[in-house]
Amino acid sequence: MMVTTHAAAALFLFGSPAALLAPQFAAPALVGALLGGIAPDLDLFVGTHRKTLHFPVYASLAGVLVAVVAALAPSAASVAAATFLLGAGLHAASDWFGASDELRPWERTSPRAVYLHPAKRWLKPLHVVRYDGAPEDFLLTLALSLPVAYLFGGPVRVVVGAGLLVAAAYTFFRRRVPDVFGV
Ligand SMILES: [Zn+2]
Fold first, then answer.
1. What distance in angstroms lies between residue 80's CA and the mean position of ligand 1's atoms?
2. How far is it, in rounded angstroms, from Cα 96 to Cα 37?
3. Comparing C-alpha atoms, which of 160, 136, 114 is closest to residue 7?
4. Rounded Cα gap, residues 120 and 80, in angstroms
5. 179 Cα to the center of ligand 1, angstroms
6. Which residues are near ligand 1, the ion (C-beta closer than 5 Å)?
7. What's the burial of 2, exposed, middle or buried (CB within 10 Å: 0-12/13-18/19+)?
8. DSSP conformation class of 124
9. Helix H or strand E segment including 140
10. Residue 80 has pLDDT above 80, yes or no
11. 146-167 pLDDT, tens per residue?
12. For the chain, is the Cβ count within 10 Å smaller at the N or the C terminus?
């Protein structure tokens, strides 16, 4: 799935409810979720993609624990840490439902969707979303973004709108990306 889908999912599922429950911590809740949805894919640049910063189990468990802490002792830091970890855990777990990390994921030649650290093995892609930038991936970004844009005005709407534009462009050009880079 596209990073915009992961970011929108984290905002919708974790950032928005936390922001509505504790409006005084709306900003840390939403920023934490946004960054958590994005952060795992930074391992595109360092280490092994879908492994080094993807923790489907550990980040999710840590997120649940920190969410309990945030509920008992709410603060900007605890709320942001909770939505960040939950968003990062969801990102890693949902990569399982997409395609592999290969350059042309629609060819389905790689069995590596995301690394399952506790089991020390890769999960096979489930292809519920056929590949990142597939039309259904864009629809997911759209469906998860619209409620967030509706609920929160101002800068949140700007960020979500920018994400939608990026997602639309990426979806439009996705199949041509490997050829453009000559790989
Ligand atoms: Zn990912």
1. 20
2. 15
3. 160
4. 29
5. 22
6. 40-41, 95
7. buried
8. P
9. helix 135-151
10. yes
11. 999 999 989 999 999 999 999 9
12. C
Per-residue pLDDT at 17: 98
Rounded Cα gap, residues 183 and 138, in angstroms: 24
Å from CA of 71 to ligand 1 middle: 28
Tell how far the Cα of 51 is from the centroid of ligand 1, in angstroms.
9
- Report the C-alpha gap between 71 and 78 in whole angstroms: 9
The DSSP bridge partners found for residue 120 are: none
For 170-180, what is each residue's pLDDT tens digit?
Answer: 999 999 988 88
Which residues are CB-neighbours of 131 under 8 A, at least 6 positions away? Answer: 98, 99, 105, 106, 137, 174
